[in-house]
Amino acid sequence: MLGGVIEFRIDRHSGVSTYLQIAAQVKQAMRMGLLGPGDKLPTAREVVEATRVNPNTVLKAYRELEHEGLVEGRRGMGTFVTASLATDAAKADAPLRQDLEQWMDRAVDEGLSGDEVDAIYTDVRGTHY
Amino acid sequence: MNAGPVRAEHVAKHFGRTKALDGCSFSLPEGSVTGLVGPNGAGKSTLLSLIAGLAKPTSGEITVHGTAVRGRMHPDVALLTQKRPLYDQFTVREMMRAGAAMNDRWSDERANEVLDLLAGVDEDAKVGTLSAGARTQVAIAVALGRLPKVLLLDEPLSDLDPLARDETLRIVMTEVAERGTTVLLSSHLLTDLGDVCDHLLLLDEGRVQVSGDIEEILDEHHVVVGPAELELGVDGVVDSSRTARQATALVRGGTVPEGFQAARPDLEALVMGYLRASRTRRLARR
Lengths: 129, 286
Prior knowledge:
Number of domains of chain B: 2
CATH architecture of the largest domain in chain A: Orthogonal Bundle
Strand order of the largest sheet of chain A: 1-2
CATH superfamily of the largest domain in chain A: Winged helix-like DNA-binding domain superfamily/Winged helix DNA-binding domain
Radius of gyration of chain B: 21 Å
Helix content of chain A: 40-55%
Distance between the termini of chain B: 43 Å
Largest sheet of chain A: 2 strands, antiparallel
Number of helices of chain B: 8
Oligomer: heterodimer
Number of helices of chain A: 5
């Protein structure tokens, strides 16, 4: 399903608009290198089949991504990724990522919950960015 | 000129002295999915039957794709009424043949496609023996067999269990994706509406209260919360409530009252605000 590329997960209780969730998930997949230039995004029909969202919402998300210069709609063909957001730092064997993996292992060993880890991450991120 | 698949101008419908609809004006964009909401008796079903051409407005005009609806079934419109009018003694197959006989434009292929979707419906079963979900699926198949450009659904989800509700919405969303059909559906199930509708039409006492793109409507409303002793003191308060310590209000327009914290409402909070306000108004008149 979805041409085997990506599948959207819609959280209906998050309070975040569905189209923003879809756009964010495409960008996340691009950053992780799962989607790159030339890849075709699932058609609205395919997304409807998998998630029951309104096809207009899917198209709205794609238009948003097109505005940001990340994808391009080609008439009768579909929507294609035109940019790359993948950074080496996001890859599984990148040093920064491995540092974080180690840190996360320690957090698990010390019995921290996911919420506590998120709180620490958000706090530290806030002091640097 | 009269662009847009469905357009209502100053539409009124009176039953004796009761004004079911009064001064209704709105238009629906092509291919949009609009949620029609409002309290019981707001005029939702009346509006749907006027658009379908089953009844004539007392005054005003409704046009569908530029042609006026004049009190007979418009060929581009299909309406699924709350009663799901089907012949219980017919088999599903016979029901489809009846659909073909009753409509000038009819696609067996399209109707069968809808029946085959999901778990599929047994075509030799009598309509009267079907589950509520399968019955709705048959009624939708009859509606979509007409190849409508405008699909009107009156409470399509009532009486359905969660799985059948999900499947019904899936059929409708697939229709929108494949054929770009304009959909207007009434429902009390706000959470279900949230992710299938892109437009909203909120009726109250026969009048349009809110109409337009849901994201834009949510953007122009705030839910504000503040200490109880503060006055709201702004225009556009839709609905407000107070506890001993806290005042909460739904406000339309850009101004946030001083000392209050504002957040964007979700669809459910917005519609609930309008419904509560409507009830308060009606109680005040008693």
